[in-house]
Amino acid sequence: MPAETTAPPQRRSRKRIYIFLALLLAALIGLHWLSRPSQVSWIVLAQAGNALGLEISAGGASEYRLRGTPMIVVRDLLVREPGAEKPLLRAERAYLSLPWTTIRAAGDSLDIERVELDAPQIDIAALNHWLATRPPSAEPSKIPSLSRGARVVRGRLIGEGWSVENFRVDFAELGPDKPVHGRLDGRVLSDGLAIPFDVAATLQRPSLARGMGMAGQVSVQAKDWTLPMRVRLGALLHSGADGLGLDRLRLGANARYRAGDTDLPFVYGLAGPLRYRDGKLSLAPMGAVLRGDDAVSNASAAKAPAPKTAATPNLIPDLDAHGSFAFGETMQLHWRGTLATWPAGWPALPPPLGQSDSPLPFRLDYEGKADFSGPAALQLQRDQTRFDAGFRLPAVLQWLDASEGSLLPPLSGHMSTPKIEISGATLEGVEIEIEDDPQAPTTPTAAR
């Protein structure tokens, strides 16, 4: 008869008790460890960082909730590309809530409840560098859904020579097949200019080639002048090898130029493809229209007339133009178009330019600071007479505002005409040179 190999029942019972106690102890240790929010946040951030190829850490107190809809809050968030000197994102506080179905899907589902960021700082150059390292995908990008929307407060975008300060983004819901309604406000700072904005935005669908609209208040503020505007914008979202931007952009605005006692209302419109790439914003090819205060008065006939000083003649021209605009390290503007008439408030044109009622084809080229303080080149032609001038806009505006001073505007230029008739005398083959301050450009630097 074979020997009995089974352990006595008492020994087997003790062994099971030991195993149970060991498992209970391990569970208690695990629960204690997981009860510390910093440990949970470390797991979540480490997994997210591994998935994105980023180093993600948090230095402040953390919170989490597992009952109901899971939620996690981390503070002093820091996100950087491994080995990078500058982080691409910092935030005082980050809040994320998402359902269990999304957690169990392990990335296959992007259903999120709500996202919040307090005081985020985003470095655009570092962000673009990381995006360039991401592997290409033949599949379209998945759009997450946010059933309770998102909020960003006290944000900051840092670009090359510009920044967006104290920006806020707030929208109530985001879904792949739902319109998005939100609000954006903040303040752009660049090269002596401040551009505060507060606009409402609507996106037809959160995907490329979908329509978007925007309306609200924007103001351009320089040292000596301001340009408050009420803007309206419509376009299609774009992303491609030429950068991010908007297709079929249509922008219209009611604006006022204010400097000292000068208050000039006008309306304008811009159209073209808008692009942002490598720290440069461009609109090319572009079309532009500008109408003076007569157009403003006609458009608002049912309202009280806009205030205007009696001594201020019309200084805003009616023009149609095409060309290009770019804004990066400097601002570049190249326009070609037609002035319907010469504004009454501008310096009188010398004969024979001033002796004709024909429209004036023009070329305007500018490259310099965004406050238009740099050198500009203007070319005018009426009939067979041509006038080329170099000037600086602040100096010309100061001359226009001055009640006394030089009879000639501060510009340098050259005029040529086949014939001038003055006081009964006829001069043929006339060439006239105008010289001003040696700091003003004597030869226009028009782009060819």
TrEMBL record:
Keywords (A to Z) from UniProt: Membrane, Transmembrane, Transmembrane helix
Residue ranges of the TM segments: 17-35
Name under which the protein is recorded: AsmA family protein
UniProt lineage: Bacteria, Pseudomonadati, Pseudomonadota, Gammaproteobacteria, Lysobacterales
